[in-house]
Design goal:
The complex is a heterodimer of chains A (100) and B (173).
Chain A lengths: L9 E5 L13 E5 L7 E9 L5 E4 L9 H4 L7 E9 L14
Chain B lengths: L1 H13 L5 E2 L12 H19 L9 H36 L2 H6 L3 H17 L3 H21 L4 E5 L7 E5 L3
Antiparallel strand pairs in B: 2-3
Helix pairs in contact in B: 2-3, 2-6, 3-5, 5-6
Classes of the chains: A mainly beta (100), B mainly alpha (173).
């Protein structure tokens, strides 16, 4: 998830973020790994399919395993929205700046 | 935010939080069934060596008894260790390398992996030549499929080890 997150960063997850609204494109979320039970993943929402499933992608596309491999994930897999993250050094914000 | 990180690390140490992975694994893309094949050869060899051991007899000296028991312990430990390496390697190929499209192409893969893991467990538990040979047979079958998914043809040859069993090798270069 570079550059938003690095190895060892802590993320605080708001589990209630999607109680009254749906995950939006661009949100950094923690989800249950559809390929490995009991494991959590950190990805960004990239789109919503017609059937309401979420396409999640890693920011570091070259090294990420995400919806390109395991397909869109149902909403039930999404645990919550990343509210704050903390790394050991300064880092770019959780939401990338809009392209110029 | 080093301060927040330090604060959260302190909390994490007191009460560990679940880990969220950004990658499923490091996608290094480096896989090879050879590890599993090699481990199967080792298990076969250990079963052979255990079979060749001769009991030193009731009138054996203490050093002779010690040597005998030491060899049994060493061969058994190595057999079990490599049976576990084999199972680990097969699981890595299964869980990390093979993709749904491979399974469509080779629908026997799940059953083959299951048999491979079962033979690994049996060979680990017992001194069982058939189970250890089954390990190699299944590893060879997995290797054939693996190399087919890479578009690499394979050849069968007798392994250049004391075990000498037929082994599947990729035809590279």
């Amino acid at each position: 998830m570079r550059p938003a997150l690095g190895p060892g960063d802590y993320v605080l997850v708001n589990r209630w973020a999607y109680r009254h609204r749906a995950p939006a494109v661009g949100d950094l979320v923690v989800l249950r790994n559809p390929e490995r039970e009991g494991q959590f993943l950190c990805k960004r929402i990239a789109g919503v399919t017609d059937s309401g499933a979420y396409v999640v992608l890693g920011d570091n596309a070259a090294e990420s395993r995400d919806s390109r491999q395991f397909g869109p994930v149902p909403r039930g897999f999404i645990v919550g929205k990343v509210w704050r993250s903390a790394g050991v050094g300064p880092r770019t914000p959780a939401r990338p700046e809009s392209p110029s | 935010m080093p301060l927040l990180h330090s604060f959260l690390r302190a909390i994490d140490r007191a009460s560990p939080a679940p880990v969220a992975h950004a990658h499923c694994d490091i996608p290094c893309g480096i896989y090879d069934p050879h590890h599993a094949q090699l481990a199967a050869h080792t298990v076969i060899r250990m079963v052979d060596l255990l079979g060749q051991l001769e009991h030193p007899g009731t009138d054996a000296t203490l050093p002779q008894k010690k040597e005998f028991h030491s060899k049994i312990a060493r061969y058994t430990a190595t057999k079990e260790q490599h049976a576990e390496v084999y199972k680990s390697e097969v699981r890595i190929l299964w869980a990390d390398y093979f993709k749904p499209e491979h399974l469509q192409q080779f629908p026997q893969l799940h059953d083959l992996v299951w048999k491979a893991l079962k033979s690994g467990s049996k060979a680990r538990q017992e001194v069982n030549l058939q189970a250890s040979e089954d390990m190699l047979t299944h590893a060879n079958e997995i290797a054939e499929i693996f190399w087919k998914t890479k578009g690499v043809s394979t050849t069968k040859a007798k392994a250049p080890y004391p075990t000498g069993r037929e082994t599947v090798y990729p035809k590279l270069g």
